[in-house]
Every structure is written in structure tokens, then in C-alpha cells.
């Protein structure tokens, strides 16, 4: 009989990835950032100047949670807030120079994580893994 404990395995993988991220950030002398902060920074590296609402949607977190994360990133000097020129009710989040300087470190960490996750898998297995995880994620 096959034992289905996918949720447990996914949780352990998430913990291991988070520990790897923290270890690598520490090696680069980056303090105060957690993996959930990294989600925001990575989004801003792809497209700078996003609203809290856009960031919340992209990282699958609530707006209040994202606001708290942004507060910490702003306090650390990695992001800044700016009112939208088109709609003053919207606050946009922008990377600072300090935040932009972290991008190569995040790319390096991302490559290490991908090597651990995908190492030894065939191209077809990688595609299948991504498709299955996406299918599961859409159910939530």
C-alpha cells in the first residue's frame, strides 16, 4: 500500500528551502530578511513599482501581511513607498539602490535552490513536477 504524505513532504521541502535561503543570505552578510521578504523582492526585480495589492496577488498573501513585510523591507532600506501619479489612492512599492544591489545574490540563491530541486531530474520529469504542483496550487 502506498502511503500518501505529500503535504508533509511539501512542508519539509519548504522548511529545507527556507533554511538554505537563510544560510545563503547569512553567507553574503544580509541580515533581517526572511524568505517571505524574498518573495516581494523577486517580484520587484521582475517588475519594479508594484502596488501592495499586486504584490499580495503575486505572492499569494493577504494585503495586511504584505504591508507588514514591506514595512520591514522599508525599515531595512530595501524598498520605498511612492504615491501613484495616476491615482493618488494607490501606493507603489519601489526598490531602492540597496534593494537593487541584492538582485545578484537572490539570483545566485535561486540557482542553488533549483540545482537541489531539479538536480538529477530529466527534462520531462521537471515539466511533470511543475505541472503537478501548479495543478495542486490552483485548487487553493
List the helices and strands and how they pair.
Layout: H1 6-27, H2 35-46, E1 50-51, H3 52-59, H4 63-75, E2 79-83, E3 91-95, H5 97-101, H6 103-118, H7 123-138
Antiparallel strand pairs: 1-3, 2-3
How is the quaternary structure best described?
single chain
- Give the uncertain stretches in residue-range form: none
Number of helices: 7
- Helix % is 55-70%
Salient structural properties:
single chain, about 140 residues, mainly alpha, 7 helices, globular
Explain this structure.
The chain has helices at 6-27, 35-46, 52-59, 63-75, 97-101, 103-118, 123-138, and strands spanning 50-51, 79-83, 91-95. The model has no long low-confidence stretch (mean pLDDT 93). The protein is mainly alpha-helical and 140 residues long. The relative contact order is 0.12.
Short summary:
This protein has 140 residues and is mainly alpha-helical. It contains seven helices and three strands, in the order H-H-E-H-H-E-E-H-H-H. Strands 1-3-2 form a three-stranded antiparallel beta sheet.
Amino acid at each position: 500500500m502506498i502511503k500518501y504524505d505529500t503535504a508533509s513532504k511539501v512542508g519539509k521541502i519548504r522548511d529545507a528551502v527556507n533554511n538554505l535561503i537563510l544560510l545563503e543570505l547569512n553567507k553574503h552578510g544580509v541580515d533581517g530578511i526572511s524568505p517571505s521578504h524574498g518573495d516581494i523582492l523577486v517580484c520587484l526585480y521582475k517588475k519594479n513599482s508594484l502596488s501592495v495589492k499586486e504584490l499580495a496577488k503575486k505572492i499569494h498573501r493577504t494585503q495586511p501581511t504584505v504591508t507588514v513585510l514591506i514595512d520591514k523591507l522599508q525599515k531595512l532600506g530595501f524598498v520605498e513607498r511612492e504615491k501613484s501619479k495616476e491615482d493618488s489612492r494607490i501606493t507603489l512599492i519601489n526598490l531602492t539602490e540597496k534593494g537593487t544591489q541584492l538582485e545578484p545574490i537572490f539570483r545566485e540563491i535561486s540557482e542553488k535552490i533549483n540545482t537541489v530541486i531539479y538536480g538529477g531530474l530529466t527534462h520531462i520529469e521537471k515539466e511533470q513536477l511543475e505541472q503537478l504542483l501548479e495543478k495542486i496550487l490552483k485548487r487553493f
